[in-house]
Amino acid sequence: MTDLPASKVDLKTVLSTPARVDNSEGMSYLQSVPRRVVTLYLPLSIIVVILLFPFYWMALTSIKPDEQLIDLETYSPFWTWNPTFKHFYKLLFDSYYPHWLWNTMYVAVCATVLSIIASVLAAYAIVRLRYKGANLVGGLIFLAYLVPPSILFIPLATVVFQYGLFDSPMALILTYPTILIPFSTWLLMGYFKTIPFELEECALIDGASRWQILIKIVLPLAIPGLISAFIFCFTLCWNEFIYALTFLQSVSNKTVPVAIVNEFVDGDIYRWGSLMAGALAGSLPLVILYAFFVEHYVSAMTGAVKE
Amino acid sequence: MADIAVAPRAKPQFREASAWDQLKHNRNWLGLWFMLPAMAFLIFFLAYPLGLGIWLSFTDTRIGRVGHFVATENYEWLWDDSIFWLSVFNTLLYTFLASAIKFAIGLYLALLLNENMPFKAMLRAMVLIPFIVPTVLSALAFWWIFDSQFSIISWSLKHLGLISQNINFLGDATWARICVIFANIWRGVPFVAITLLAGLQTVSPSLYEAATLDGATSWQNFRYITYPLLTPIIAVVMTFSVLFTFTDFQLIWAMTRGGPVNATHLMATLSYQRAIIAGQLGEGAAISSAMIPFLLAAIMISWFGLQRRKWQQGESND
Fold this sequence. Notes:
The structure holds two protein chains of two kinds. Chain A is mainly α. In chain A, 76% of the residues lie in helices and 0% in strands.
């Protein structure tokens, strides 16, 4: 009888310990280690290796000397002991690559800033002003998101020509927002909906105009959303191909993706090194940006899908 | 409620609201001002071109020459064009295979990533990289991987003793199709996986615990808990996936440009070739307008097909 309290305490610890483990590990303790290796780690590592191999290959090719690239028998193709930066050198000093990089950056930043400004206003109006027909306009903007560039580029090419924008960065800066605005408006609408109404009501009572409310209250609270929208739009711009391919003609005006496909692809058997160096250098800015803002990126992607 | 606050601040003397006040404070007018920039972009560069494209498809416009209305001549011409029908077939094959496999692998990968393991966050971040890198640039890497002479895949298979000669990946019609579909899957899987993973994380673990206590196997856990709860997000993700696969252009253009002998020409690449390279804007516009019904059908099927299932299960909230 005297040891009853002690056993009670024991029971408690026995019951509570697994529960605490449970919270951090889920039900994974139910599986044995070998089973987890076969059902989880093995397939996962195969998929991850396949997903990342092209980048390894790209990077390796860009630093291999030319003779190793086409001689697969003498040297093991999976590694190189004498890396060279010749291809990058050629890229930087012997081609328009810096120009192309600058063009891409310039177009992407301008188009993104324009679209974010337009989308902030539109999203705020749809969510908070709720003017007559706001829901209809919201639906139309979502539909605009579903219109793919590949059915628009032909008429847009004639439009761009009529407006006299052909072969100028303005052509891209003005057309990219049609891809970006629907997406970022939809994303920002989601963010604005989470901001409590009461804050705005207080501000209205204090005599703030709608514009002041937007700038001083809503935007500071929606900064995570703005960052997400900005990064995602920037990536979309950088990635865009068909408009840039159609609307730009002169070599020095092109963006990186178009220029690499058109200017670096020639009959030369030794082209691979510089081609891969160009591809790597064109991807790195985005990958670095992504590395800093993974969460924002994921929330942009999933946020746009969830709505 | 906000209405009361919008009204001009109480002033001692009453004053009729002037037209200017109306423009400044009426919510409909304010809404119009706020919508103006976005609407201007979307009307001038999206809605107008969309209509113009359909109009162009009924004319014989060429680059540098204004076209005349030719009624349905472009479409009649396409109807008898075997290359056009080949491109339609290719597009449907490409979309169907790539989307189905992307969905299967994406869902599997999402389930794997949802498990607890070391370096979870880093793995998730790494998986998304193929989606971040510009498609054209990764397509070039694939072009090099699938090179006819120096392909690393051919080399590895030869050294494993599985084949004796290099596979002509992008020169053979069947192989070329397999390669572009593979590259598309490679690029699309991270998107599907990460968005589905976000959906998976909203499923409460207690459901699985309860089901496991009731003796459910892991397949039953998936079939009766995960899948039904994930259906809405699957519908959206797959709609987007089908849409972007159907209208894909850059991957094909960077890898094969529609070759060999048009075996990988999609409708988008064919319309680019006819409209911009050959200069037949009218005909190209007809090809891209011909994509619209297919797109609508694809959206309807993947949207309502999955939506209805959700409705049948009596799930009303999200």
